[in-house]
Structure formats: C-alpha cells, structure tokens
Design brief:
GO molecular function: O-acetyltransferase activity
GO cellular component, one term: membrane
Largest sheet: 7 strands, mixed
Distance between the termini: 43 Å
Order of helices and strands: HHHEEHEHEEEEEHEHEHEHH
Organism: Acer saccharum
Mean pLDDT: 81
CATH architecture of the largest domain: 3-Layer(aba) Sandwich
Number of helices: 10
Shape: globular
Number of domains: 2
Pfam family, one: PMR5N
Low-confidence stretches: 1-20, 26-64, 66-72
Helix content: 25-40%
Keywords: Membrane, Signal-anchor, Transmembrane, Transmembrane helix
Length: 416
C-alpha cells in the first residue's frame, strides 16, 4: 500500500508555494537553537544557536536572511557529545496519559519505585539541545511520512515519539494489515503518516522449524537477500529511520555488517525513493553481573558520566561497523542524489544504565519466564531524547532546503 502522494519539492509548478512554506517554517523555527553537526555541509550550516534562546527576540528574525545570518554568526556544536543533567520538569507524558506504551516498557505500571530516571535531559558539550516541541515537529513534517525500520527497539522509539506528540494530537490507525509488527498511523490534522516495519534482522529470515514441537526461535538468515516485508513498502516515504539493536538475533560482526550492507543496498536500489535515510546508531544494553540469559540485570538508578565508562569490546565493534557501512551507503546514495544522515544516539544511551525496565516489564507474580530487560527502555525515559535529536536534524534539513532553493533561484536568474 502506498502512502498519500507527496508533492515533489522540485516540481516547477510548486516552487513558489514551497518557497513560501520554507519561509514560514523558518520563522517558526527562529526561536529554537539548531545544534546538529552536519558532516560535509557548508561551514555556516555547522554553526548553531547554542546560547540562551531567551536573549533573542522574534524581531531579530523578521526575514529568512536574518535567520541565516544568525546561524552564520554562531558556533557549531556536536549535539551527540555531552552529559545528562537534571531536568525537574520532565517527564512530558506519563503511563496514564499515553496509550502507546508497550506493556513490557511500562515500568511505572509494573511497580518501578524510583522516578529519577525520568528526570534528566541531554546537555551537549558547548550548547543546549532544546526539549522536544511536538507542535513544531508536526509542522515540519506536515504532508510527509516517516517509517521506522528495525527491531523491537525501533518500535520502542516510535512509541516514545507517539507519546511525545500526544500533547498535540493522537494518530488514527490506518494500518494495511492487522499484524502488529507493521503498524501505520495518520495524524490527520497534519496529513503526517508514521509507520513501523518490524525486521529484527534487516534481511530475509525464515524460522528454522516454525511447525516443530520445540519452537526454538532459531532462524535461517539470508544475509544477501532483501527483507521484502519492508523493502517493498518504503519507496514513497519521506524519512526512514533504520536501526538494529537486538544483536543476539544476528551473528556477531560479520552478520551485522552484511545485514546493514544488504539493507542499505535495498534502499539505494529503490528506483522511486527520494527520501532521507537516518541511521539510528546502536544503543548498548547494560547487563551487569551476568549475560542476558545468565541472570544479568540493570539496577542502577542514575546516569553515569562520560569519564566513567567507554564504548568497548563487541559494542565498539558493532558501532564502528555501522559507521563504516553507513559511509559506504552514503557515498553510493549521493550518486543518485539520495541523502543519508547519522542519528548518533550511542554515547547518550551508553550513559543511561538506569533507563531499562529490568524486572518492571510485567507483574511480579506473572506466570511467565522472562529475563531482566536491559535492552529496551522505560517510557517515559531516556529514549525520549532521541526525538530531541531527530527534531534538531529535521530543522537543519529545513535550513538546507532553504539554501538549495535560494541557490536554484539564483542560478535561474543568471540563466535568464
């Protein structure tokens, strides 16, 4: 099923309206800092608002040129490098105000006694990252579509986004199948489509013995074949966020690399795909005193600081594998005019061993065999910050679109 048709921004008969839309959006964005390191972008786009936004009055942004000029004057900042600082105003939704929280991540419902894990925000080194603004996000994605492609942590991220947006609007279920792994939602006021495509391996997989008596959950993976459950569905999306965190489902290192290479190849091979692909990087788990199936647990109640830990071992290897395959895919995609962006959540999540459900993803006396969950994230919780990152990146896409449109207009005048 196709999402609603989206006007192509470069269509000749749409240029005046697009310029107007971009101008209006820039005015809306003017009071919010832009802190996103854009690798390979012009230098002035690396500069962002990292000072107190209250020092700037709306009158300083009377024109789009004024906004761009301000961006040129401000220093750049890597929003993905920083520390967690207290935020007494959080959380911005609860497990009673948002119905989208998956039961296994509904930590407060199932008795987690502490609340401090919900009351932190990410502070980049050298600038401030604005708290997610749901109205602004929905305005930016008006008339567009976004798909999460990945495993249950991707679903976790999507449900976080739905909860954050619930302060403005709840979506309508417009799924093309009753299968819960492939949900599609519509924000009718904004004509914005949000979808999840569950693919724990990113590539084609087949359960080894789905009808057998043991139901071991073992899969045969076809590392060089596309998973058509999602690759045949995403061609009309404006944004794709791809990820893979449940690495116990993949052969380490080699399999992980091959899975991402095949997934990126699938995206780059889509003839009509014109969207932006975000790689949301690996989010480390936090099992201590044992592996996930050997009694390991995550019982911390506060973040740790960056000088207290480091990404190492297999986690470092998987992260670097993602970056290497991302750069290869980006280079190939650029030849077709496709955009790839790095949503680097790894450091921020590495510092949050306190944010997992642990044993608070089910009733204490529930008659099921469940391991302590140190992979997924409580909602509300640390991964709400992933939407802070995403919104900043989308704002920078607006700025870049403005500059591309301005350059196109200048070239057209010169040709005339």
């Amino acid at each position: 099923m196709k999402v609603d048709a989206i006007d192509h921004p470069l269509a000749k008969n749409q240029t005046p309206r697009i310029v107007l839309q971009i101008t209006l959006t820039l005015i809306v964005l003017a009071t919010i800092p832009l802190c996103y390191p854009l690798l390979g972008y012009p230098l002035f786009l690396l500069k962002n608002s990292c000072n107190n936004s209250s020092d700037h009055s709306p009158s300083s942004h009377d024109s789009r040129e004024g906004l761009i000029g301000e961006l040129q004057r401000e220093k750049r900042c890597d929003i993905f490098s920083g520390e967690w600082v207290p935020n007494p105003e959080a959380p911005y939704y609860t497990n009673t105000t948002c119905w989208a929280i998956h039961e296994n991540q509904n930590c407060r419902k199932y008795g987690r006694p502490d609340t401090e894990f919900m009351k932190w925000r990410w502070k980049p080194d050298g600038c401030d990252l604005p708290i997610f603004n749901p109205a602004q996000f929905l305005e930016i994605v008006r008339g567009k579509s976004l798909a999460f492609v990945g495993d249950s942590v991707a679903r976790n991220q999507m449900q976080s986004l739905i909860c954050l947006l619930s302060r403005v609007e709840y979506p309508v279920d417009v799924s093309y199948t009753p299968d819960e792994r492939f949900k599609r939602w519509k924000y009718t006021t904004y004509n914005f489509t949000l979808a999840i495509y569950w693919t724990p391996h990113l590539v084609k997989a087949k359960e080894a013995d789905s009808n057998g008596p043991t139901h071991t959950g073992l899969f045969n993976l076809y590392l060089d074949e596309f998973d058509e459950e999602w690759t045949t569905q995403i061609e009309d999306f404006d944004y794709i966020i791809i990820s893979a965190d449940n690495v116990t489902d993949l052969p380490m290192s080699y399999g992980y690399r091959k899975a991402f290479r095949t997934a990126f190849k699938a995206i780059n091979s889509l003839e009509n795909f014109k969207g932006i692909t975000f790689l949301r990087t690996f989010a480390p788990s936090h099992f201590e005193n044992g592996l996930w199936n050997e009694g390991g647990n995550c019982v911390r109640t506060k973040p740790i600081r960056s000088n207290e830990t480091a990404l190492e071992g297999i986690d470092f290897e998987l992260y670097m594998t993602q970056l290497e395959e991302f750069k290869i895919a980006e280079k190939l995609g650029n030849k077709r005019g496709l955009k790839f962006r790095l949503l680097d959540t790894t450091q921020a999540t590495l510092l949050r061993p306190d944010g997992h459900p642990s044993r608070y993803g089910h009733l204490p006396n529930e008659n099921v065999t469940l391991y302590n969950d140190c992979v997924h994230w409580c909602l509300p919780g640390p991964i709400d910050t992933w939407s802070d990152f995403l919104l900043e990146m989308l704002k920078m896409e607006v700025i870049r679109s403005y500059n591309d449109e301005k350059l196109h207009s200048k070239d057209k005048k010169n040709d005339d």
